[in-house]
Amino acid sequence: MDEYRNVCYLIHFDEPIGNAQHYLGYASDLSVRISQHRSGHGARLTGRANFLGIGWRVVRVWRNGSPAIERRLKSMGAADLCPHCSRYIRNLPPVTVEKGQGQPSLT
Ligand SMILES: [Zn+2]
User: Fold this and answer.
1) Cα(49) to centroid of ligand 1, in Å?
2) DSSP assignment of 46-95
3) Residue 31 or 107, more confident
4) Which pLDDT belongs to residue 101?
5) What is the pLDDT of residue 34?
6) How remote is the CA of residue 84 from the centroid of ligand 1, in Å?
């Protein structure tokens, strides 16, 4: 599905792994990337979560993502972007990134 191509995505872990409770990434194809995470071939953190039996799920997706936007989102702090953890954005609609814009914005 096109809506899951070239996205940034935020994973929330049910329990903290060390100091981390989130993973923020960029994927050219999110369903492929999630399969990699599930099978232990994604990121170190999701592999660790799988190993420890800690559940995780994608809680946000930003369309029209890029590695640059991924870096920018990371600099904002994943916890503050998480609908489960942020005291700022709880119950707000998801952030979307319009095509051609380098910066995420609330819509
Ligand atoms: Zn969270």
Assistant:
1) 14
2) HHHHHHHT--EEEEEEESS--HHHHHHHHHH-HHHH-TTT-TTTTTSPPP
3) 31
4) 45
5) 95
6) 5
The per-type count for the chain, helices as H runs and strands as E runs, is: 4, 3
Residue 82 lies in domain: 2-106
What whole-number distance in Å separates Cα of residue 97 and Cα of residue 70? 11
Using the mean position of ligand 1's atoms as its centre, give its distance from the Cα of residue 13 in Å.
Answer: 7
Q: Using the CB atoms, write b or e for 53-62: b if 16+ within 10 Å.
A: ebebebbbbb
Distance 2 CA to ligand 1 centre (A): 26
> pTM, whole model, 2 decimals?
0.80
Distance 104 CA to ligand 1 centre (A): 18
Distances in Å between the Cα of 85 and the Cα atoms of 33, 36, 100 are 23, 25, 29
Encoding tokens for residue 66? 């890029």
| Confidence check: pLDDT of 95 > 90 | no
Provide the number of structural domains found in the chain: 1
